[in-house]
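Q: Can someone sanity-check these two? First one:
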Amino acid sequence: MKSVGIDIGSSSIKVVEVNLNNKGQLKLTRYVDHPLGLNPAFDPEIQIIEFLKTLAASYEANSAKFVMALSQDKVSVRHKLFPFNDRLKIQKSLAFELEEDLPFSSETAIFDAKIIRTRGNSAEVLACATPKIRVAEFQSRFGDLGLDITTLSAEGIALANCFERWFESPPASPTASPLEMEDENRPLRNITAVISIGHSRTLINAYENNQLVGARCILWGAKYVAEAIARRYEIPYLDAIKELQTKGFILTSKEGASYDQIVFSDTISGQFKELCRDINISLLELKAELHGQILNVGLTGGGSQVLNLQAFMTTQLEVPCNKIQVLENFPQVAFEKSEKIDATIGVALGLAIEGLKKPRNPAIQFLRSEFAAQNHVFKQFWHTWGTSLQFALAFYLVFSLYSGLRDNFAQSLNERTHDALIDKAKKVANLGKKEANEKGVKKYIREQKKRGQELKTLANVSRLNSALDVLKKVNDAIPARNSLAVNVRHWSVTDSQAIFEGTVNSARDLQQLQQALGNVAIDGKVEARAARMAPAPGALPFAFSFKVDRGVIK
């Protein structure tokens, strides 16, 4: 699975591509840092549009998920405790729970929630809300660039993915939340802050046990330092940016430093003092909201590369401040690492991870309700096969109508046939009321067929030739008595088999008799058999068997 996070900042566009293999291993395969023109006389919007169009053209359709974010200053985040932990119920209750904190309603804003952890039947939640007009502006700005934006998140929420165990479900604890306890009994929560200093905004995330519990945004960035340098040295803004990026430093001690070094350091530190003042206010809010204590602060972002900044902020915030290495948590990186990449990749990398999240720990999604992403696969499919599907649908409707009419006609015909059957059963077969049905008619037909067969058999029997008829044929076939004298002693006919026994005067007469009987036999064959009578003087006994025609019609 491939996901692409796109972080559009005020100085550059960061793009991170990640792959998640079948074993659940994450690999960073691509990083692009496209700088934007910082000259105030030019609108960078054209550069952004052209770059995004080029980026979209470099990917095949549906080959990757694209994730972007609303800037954190356009998203309100509040830490809330819900008395239930069902995700759907939490989603439905967000507008009501934030009613006292934010001037938004379900009609004017989009709400979503990130479950931090569950404790018994309750849940700690980061509730997020943004006005619908912000989402509409985003879609108007980037909706027609060819990028199929699947998820629209928030910068602070995305940055947290670089430190959280995003692939796991929110942790569960059987104990009650500290927020439910009385203030005097509630223990202090140990909180770690991550501050990402960008070109025009600074993100502040609060973590407890590597779980995001709070997010803030300060509208201050490194551009204010560059503007101060430009004013102090009366140089162009672009040159001041280069000076800050290549030579920016804050002196930890002015002893032994030159006048120019002290002036340059004071120019930078004066602006960072303003940032630290705002950060202190945000940290105080987080400590009060979460009833916690800030243990340490991690610094990242392009503005954090100023030399000795961590030492300066430690003295200003009175909390240990150190640079953090974002890429240390991702061992599989396909591009070359550097301090600059490590400092600037955070939000884009977090957005790419948002596209890989599972339903057990889903991404923050502001593309909801009327802003829900359209299914371009279906649109392409309909464009290709829409006409054919319309014809198929029309055919289906016509066929369904024909089937319905045919079924109604068949049912009507069946009822009429049933009525006619009962009527004929009564009139023709003289069946009673109980027998006048399909079963009774079938029984009547069987009986009539059986009776017809019996009548046919009787008719055949009535035309059967009797034994005397067959004997007459034999008598007619034998020569006259003066030519051949035959004394008949036994005559029988069984079916078509006739047995003729008697005596003749000589062997010549016997042969003549056998030939005459052959003319009567239906197959011309006459078989001699042993005579049952005793021989008499002057007489020759015979016994013949042959088949005769009885006149039976098969």
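And here is the second, same format, sequence then tokens:
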Amino acid sequence: MCGIAGYITNEPLPDHTRRILETMTNELEHRGPDGHGFHVDPDRGLAMGHKRLSIIDLETGAQPLYSHDRKNVLTVNGEFYDYKRIRGDLALRGARFVTKSDSEIALHLYERKGLDFVHDLRGEFGFALYDGREDRLVLVRDRFGIKPLFYYVADEAIYYGSEVKALLAHPAVPAELDPRATLHQLMHTMVPGTSAFKGIRAIKPGHMIIITRKNGRFDVKEELYWDLTFPERNDYNREVPNQEYIDLVRAKLLESVNFRLEADVPVGCYLSGGIDSCSMLGMASSVQQSPVKAFTISFDHDAYDESKIAIEMAERTQADHEILNLAAEDLYGDNYVKTVWHAERTFYNTLGVAKWCMSRRVHECGYKVVVTGEGADELFGGYPAFKNDFLLHETSPDEAEALRKKLEQSNALFRGAILSESQMSHEAFEDKCGFTPSWIQPWMQTLEIARPLLHDNLLEELSDYDPIQALADTIDTKQVRGRHALDIAQYTWSKTMLEGQILNWGGDRVDMANSMESRPAFLDHHVAEAAVTIPPELRVRGFTEKWVLREAMKAVLPETLYKRQKFAFMAPPGHTDERKRVALQKLINNHMDREHVEAAGIFDPNRIEQFVVDYKNDKDSVSLVRKDALMNHLLCLQLLHEHFIEAKQVVSNV
């Protein structure tokens, strides 16, 4: 796991190109503290840099990597699984390897299959491959967007990097927050392919960007190579016995976990009190000879703390269990500020800060790799909003009403952020999907109180912009028409919130902040391609979400967890006790006072001051959850301006 950065240009490379490239990659030191490498080709206007976190092939795996004739150059951030089998097959066909790393297989596969090579790559990755014969640069991102990769297109050059900060380190890349992205972050939903910064694009999951030089100009083509495709409603095979689906899930997950335990360094597990991470630990413990090191976050608020179940699971598997207890002083202050710098976007809950603290602890314990449980809810129908859509649109009215009331009661703690207290709809989603997915409805309500807080200049600029429409427009109609409501809910969430939230400030960005690689075994595309064949009523059965996964993992789960309903893993919000209120207020005083708000020019200072007063005086639990989420977004946007816009202005003026 590493960090990559570079660019290709039609203009002559200056003599100090190597120094510029070092500046860009130095911004990624946290992603790769174990080594670095550079490729500079003045004749092609090509500069490629790499920062290495050594996990596989500790001795000879340095990058960039080159083809035998040195015409093709590769830099990789990520892991390719099943690489030993692929290496063996390629070697028998004449390939000559110069390292023992997993990354090198991409070069040989490309030489044999061209751009179709991506279909043979299994894992999480973001990489750059330059083809010297075609004068072509290919940027590729994994199927779910587990690993980040961004790019910026200028008139005579194209810049790329694992994180935006690496691009902004180049003097030719401007630093400016994007007004539309600002509005989206306030409502917690980024448009796929965008970033918080104007002009800087995120490569979409399952896509590659093909940059070819033709007649002195760059042709930039975006190509989809994989998508999460559910069968049409009537195409499920319901003649297959339930046990076959259960066995299929078990077999695919066990294979995926086995691959993710492959490393030349120790591998641990993240462990919450949920089915997903407990399943990971259960499977890892069953195949690994020595006790697995498990890492758990514990909060100082009983309603949000799941450590008791995690302890029970750790004892059941005889894991070496590490518990990190977090309080207000851990979730706010400097840790909060640092997390925003790493995430490069806003977050609605300090869970991202908690995970940053956890990755730091993992690093301190001498671990570079953990297996995690992200992705299970997306594939097996785990989120309350998914269940709500199933009940609303696929269940008889009499049965649905009672179950929906039960769902609302069991998720009362999170109403305002996870479930909306009233049904909302939007014409764009109604036209595209046939209904407005429940997962977006709380954020539609947040938008109503967030938009008026913007500065008048931004309000005027965005007056004709509909962020809900923009999100709906990115959904592929062919992937939702004729589908079951649960499939539509899972697909639309996976194409938006999974990459923009769960895998960002809940995954790679806060893990790699402390040089620690997370491996979400559920998000293996072989697991996903099996999961989408499972009929919806086996994913959500009655009131039981992830039923088929529960049955597949029943032997390794404690009974209390096997029977337990989905509980959102979230840090206690800022309004839940006095210590957090005080800690949050310090952040507001330091970064969201009138002077800072006026300097950033994002929000109207008077309206922000009134919002803070209303937040302090609010007593309604649902309203507080919503305002607490919005408060985090407001703070994060102010911090993004400080971290990146003001910081670049200072550098430019030196």
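A (reply): Looked at the second one. Residues 39 and 48 are 5 Å apart (CA to CA). Residues 621-653 form the longest helix (33 residues).
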